[in-house]
Write a structure and sequence with these properties.
The chain is α/β, with parallel strands linked by helices. Helices cover 48% and strands 13% of the residues. The strands form 5 sheets. It has a 3-stranded parallel sheet. Strands 4-5-8 form a 3-stranded antiparallel sheet. Strands 6-7 form a two-stranded antiparallel ribbon.
Length: 439
């Protein structure tokens, strides 16, 4: 471990934090924590036309939600113009930069490229060579007085003492220009690690047409932050074994850049859903209830009308059946609502083509049950019906399930009866009898 390690995550506040940026932030965070180093958060807002305060706040909120804390910052490049001006003047004085006048845009400053080969050892891709004679002199300070990207990030990295730059490999083409500036300013050269991009499931570059792209999207869609962190950690990195569910501490302990892949990874929504379902199952019910309440409220299923105990029981009953938080609402709406939607196929198979007397007999016997919180009493009641009709329990449970929930899949029938309560149970059975079983 190297406690002198200092990394940075420098998002541009021109939009939400996308999933690729979140992975870059995570890899920097894991590398810093693994080495007992520090991570700097730097907001690169020198694009005055596109940078917004709303985007900045969205990035900070996403980082906080993911649990990726930082040790310094957030610094804003727009607050550091004096520092950049100082280094522009140094390059001008040393003859390594020059002014250029544009009749329309005004006066800018360009960096003077020298003809030489540049090579560096990338911690992911190995040695990379570049012929800087193929590069043109480039702008380091725009006519509006703001620094260009390649210049500002080098100055900041040098001044802040950044030791490792971990970023997407779409920045590889910037590296030769930045190395030239490092050398011209006399800064120590940091170590570079360029991470291959994330591809969509079809192998093309990840974009909106593949579904959610920003951290905010995934949060809205009901994914848990720990599941997202675990999932994106494995998009390009391996802990060295087949274990897929890792705690943050396990990730910190195992993370090294040597295990970052050299090739692009594909985003797999099926795997993300599976992983999220595992985190849902492992979350304490009380915590899970807290995560679910906003979705219950958004669906106008006012959880205020039910007791905490009842809601905890419902969540416990269904926690292994949903992959995302909104799916819980979809599955359990019949428990909250007085009106339910019936699946036509389920009605046809289990009610209209079934034995009408089964539901009627169950209805009559359930009317006599005094305690719907007693699993034993409910089971005794329904099994007496199956005994009288000489049938397996499934022949009765399925039509009752459809009558109560509207579909053929639900949690255990006795738990369903308990959570619905006697009044709702009898009303729905009566409705099913009168609607589907009587000609």
């Amino acid at each position: 471990m190297d406690s002198n390690v200092k990394v940075r995550f420098p998002p541009s506040p021109t939009g939400f934090l996308h999933i690729g940026g979140a992975r870059t932030a995570l890899y920097n965070w894991l590398f810093a924590r693994h080495n007992n180093g520090k991570m700097v958060l730097r907001i690169e807002d020198t694009d005055r036309q596109r940078s917004t305060e709303e985007a900045t706040q969205a990035i900070l909120d996403s980082m906080t939600w993911l649990g990726l804390d930082w040790d310094e910052g957030p610094y804003h490049q727009s607050d550091r113009l004096e520092i950049y001006n100082e280094y522009v003047e140094k390059l001008l004085k040393d003859g390594k930069a020059f002014h250029v006048d544009d009749p329309e845009k005004g006066r800018a400053v360009r960096f003077k490229i020298t003809d030489e080969f540049t090579d560096f050892d990338d911690m992911v891709h190995g040695n990379i060579k570049s012929d800087t004679s193929l590069l043109e002199d480039f702008v380091i300070q725009k006519a509006d007085g703001f620094p260009a990207y390649n210049f500002a990030c080098v100055v900041d990295d040098g001044v802040m003492g950044i030791t490792h730059i971990i970023r997407g490999d779409d920045h590889l083409s910037n590296t030769p220009r930045q190395i030239a500036i490092y050398k011209a300013l006399g800064f120590d050269l940091p170590k570079f690690a360029h991470i291959p991009m994330i591809l969509g499931e079809d192998g093309s570059r990840m974009s909106k047409r593949h579904g959610a792209t920003s951290v905010t999207d995934y949060r809205t869609k009901g994914y848990l932050p720990d599941a997202i962190v675990n999932f994106i950690a494995l998009l390009g990195w391996s802990p060295g074994h087949d274990q897929e569910l890792l705690t943050r501490q396990e990730m910190i302990e195992k993370f090294t850049l040597k295990r970052v892949n050299k090739t692009s990874s594909r985003f797999d929504f099926t795997k993300l859903d599976w992983m999220n379902s595992k985190y849902i199952q492992n979350l304490p019910v009380g915590n899970l209830v807290g995560e679910l309440r906003p979705y219950i409220k958004d669906a106008n299923l006012d959880s205020g009308i039910v007791s905490d105990e009842w809601l905890h029981k419902l969540v416990e009953l269904y926690k292994e059946r949903f992959r995302t938080l909104p799916e819980f609402v979809t599955l359990t709406t019949p428990f909250f609502s007085d009106e339910i939607e019936y699946e036509d196929a389920a009605v046809q198979k289990h009610l209209k083509k079934g034995n009408p007397s089964l539901i009627k007999d169950a209805y009559e016997k359930l009317k006599e049950v005094t305690d719907f919180s007693s699993m034993a009493e409910l089971e005794s009641c329904l099994r007496s019906v199956t005994t009288e009709h000489s049938i397996g329990f499934g022949k009765l449970a399925q039509p009752i399930r459809v009558a109560l929930i509207g579909k053929s899949a639900s949690a255990g029938i006795f738990e369903t009866l308990e959570l619905l309560g006697k009044d709702k149970t009898l009303k729905r059975l009566e409705y099913a009898i009168n609607t589907f079983l009587l000609d």
